[in-house]
Amino acid sequence: MNKKPRSLTRIIIPVVLTLVTIALIVWPMLAGGQYVVLDPKGPIGASQRDLIVISTILCAVIIVPVLILSAVIVWRYRDKPDNKAAYEPNWSHSTKAEAIWWTVPIIIIGILAIVTIRYTYDLEPSKPLAHEKAPITIQVSSLDWKWLFMYPEQGIATVNTLNIPADRPVKFELTADSPMNSFWIPQLGGQIYTMSGMAMTLYLQADHEGKYWGSGANFTGEHFGEMRFDVNATSDEDFDKWVAEVKQSSQELTTEGYKALAEPGTSNVAYYSAFPEGLFQNIVTKYVVDGQSAHSKHGTSSEASGAIQNAIDTSNKDEDKSAN
Ligand SMILES: [Cu+2]
Hints:
alpha+beta, six-stranded mixed β-sheet, five-stranded mixed β-sheet, single chain
């Protein structure tokens, strides 16, 4: 066997691939971005970060040794004149090896299953958050291509900007008057879909005052990329002050105004001192055909049906019922 000169490409390819992988990991940090999902600012985001970290570590327990062994075995047992590794072409069974590669994955999958089930039930979006303060309700509707936020308790509405009190749970009720979108404030918690004819509930909380980034995380056409909004988490006093300011300095959102707003197009940040009563329920029920949600054939939560039924009954004031 001749010793062949080592081909340059055999070295270049792995080196380039390794550098590309490292660059992809480091690049967002250098580009001034942050790993927002891994830097949560509220209890839901923190739980989701923990689940990601735990799952990654458990998977790494299998993946890392497998990757290392793949390289070691290829290197150690390659065909080479002075190779000292045992050559056993008839080898076929090792009880010790079988025990390792069955037991370890079974234990890890078992732990992963228990952890995932616990977190999944814990992170059910419509599950209220334990807190001494009562949640504030904000109704959200995705439009082509802007976000409308309605504050039923305060009577105001905003477009493409969201103010919330910090250290207090927020109950988001969500729907769409446009193609399905996805409401996402990464630092507070994972996304939830907004769908026409369906009311979803999502509890989130910002532990600290601050400005967080929100976006539409589902492609919905031409100006989808502009469906971004800032989330300003402030103290209770500043929130009340802001509400009073909006009430004083803005115009009302009328039914005609809403129709114009819902037309496809982009929008700047906007504030409204009032909005039509029951607007959210009207948006939801607009897509209900024969008393049935467009989603009735699949996965409509009892809560969503409840919200629709409430709207149909035009007695949509009982917030407590829908929180269960
Ligand atoms: Cu659906």
